[in-house]
Design brief:
It holds the Pfam family HTH_48. It comes from Trichonephila clavipes. Residues 14-58 form the Mos1 transposase HTH domain. This is HTH_48 domain-containing protein. With 161 residues, the protein is mainly α. It is 55% helix and 0% strand. It has 8 helices and no strands. It has helices spanning 10-22, 27-38, 45-56, 77-89, 95-102, 106-119, 137-140, 148-159. It starts with 9 loop residues before the first helix and ends with a helix.
């Protein structure tokens, strides 16, 4: 009795589809066989049919195609260090200014600041002496023009309550 392969990479399944398609097997038969072997982790019928048609048309690669649009930014330690250094050199720097200087989106800079606050990856907020009162503009504003140091100070105040 066969057992279902639950931890198989998608490339493995694509290789099988490519091989059996090249052997001349019918797509429906290949998919039925793969469903019995891979169970729930098998590629969907729609994806299977697209891949099978592409391989019959001469496609060789089993890797994903490049997709249009902006690529995802991976937050690496050197990017965190750059943001940390910029904030230390100018405590009044805004998220928008940081994003322009390190050439990433404001959302990425905000994620770095959040990681710095929650996990203590860098010490962006450790020198905060002044903490705004609850309900001030620093805590309720989501505008990117509010300085990073002020946001960090507000977050530190919330953390200690």
């Amino acid at each position: 009795m066969a057992f279902a392969l639950q931890n198989s990479p998608i490339e493995e399944q694509r290789n099988i589809i490519r091989f059996l398609t090249a052997e001349g097997e019918k797509p429906a038969a290949i998919h039925r066989w793969m469903v019995t072997v891979y169970g729930e982790k098998c590629v969907s019928d729609k994806s299977f049919r697209k891949l099978s048609a592409r391989f019959r048309a001469g496609r060789e690669s089993v890797d994903d195609d490049q997709r249009p649009g902006k690529t995802n930014t991976v937050i690496k330690s050197d990017l965190i260090d750059k943001v940390d250094d910029l904030v230390r050199s100018d405590r009044r720097v805004t998220l928008r200014m940081l994003a322009l200087k390190v050439d990433v989106s404001c959302g990425t800079v905000w994620s770095i600041v959040q990681v710095a606050i929650s996990e203590g990856v860098c010490r962006l907020g450790s020198e905060a002496a002044h903490r705004p009162a609850k309900g001030t503009a620093y805590g309720t504003s989501t505008a990117t023009s509010v300085s990073v140091s002020e946001r960090l100070r507000f977050h530190e105040a919330d953390r200690h309550r």
